[in-house]
């Protein structure tokens, strides 16, 4: 029975939704109907939203399958919490934060994706 993953799925997808709202607000504020209009603020908003979606959905699937395969609840909480922190840090840094935070957040994101993939594979074999 899945009990841990839905909490992280909700929080991570809420982050994606908030980034989508930010993209829409930025688009309205800058009066850009399509694309980025050549405006760096619009480009950052679009990429922050898209980048979150590109990583959140695969991670949630990995977390779900890991839990289904008998993964430890504490490990799910640990990995999910770190991933959530990494994605929030990455979004903040893409929109207006320091590049070093983006680099750290991106590295942590990828490390967690690879680690969870390997942990799931180990459980399945």
From TrEMBL:
**Transmembrane segments annotated in the record for this chain:** 6-25
Entry keywords, A to Z: Membrane, Transmembrane, Transmembrane helix
Subcellular location per the Swiss-Prot or TrEMBL entry: Membrane
Q: Name one Pfam family in it.
A: MAPEG
* Keyword NADP appears in the UniProt entry: no
Can you name this protein? Answer: MAPEG family protein
Q: Which organism is it from?
A: Nannocystis punicea
């Amino acid at each position: 029975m899945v009990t841990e993953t839905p909490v992280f799925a909700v929080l991570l997808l809420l982050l994606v939704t908030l980034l989508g709202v930010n993209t829409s607000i930025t688009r309205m504020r800058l009066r850009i109907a399509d694309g980025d209009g050549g405006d760096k603020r619009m480009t950052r908003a679009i990429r922050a939203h898209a980048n979150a979606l590109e990583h959140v959905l695969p991670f949630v699937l990995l977390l779900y399958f890991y839990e289904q395969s008998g993964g430890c609840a504490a490990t799910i909480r640990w990995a999910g919490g770190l991933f959530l922190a990494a994605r929030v840090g990455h979004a903040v840094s893409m929109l207006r934060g320091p590049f070093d935070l983006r680099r750290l957040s991106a590295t942590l994101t990828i490390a967690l994706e690879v680690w969870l993939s390997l942990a799931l594979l180990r459980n399945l074999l």
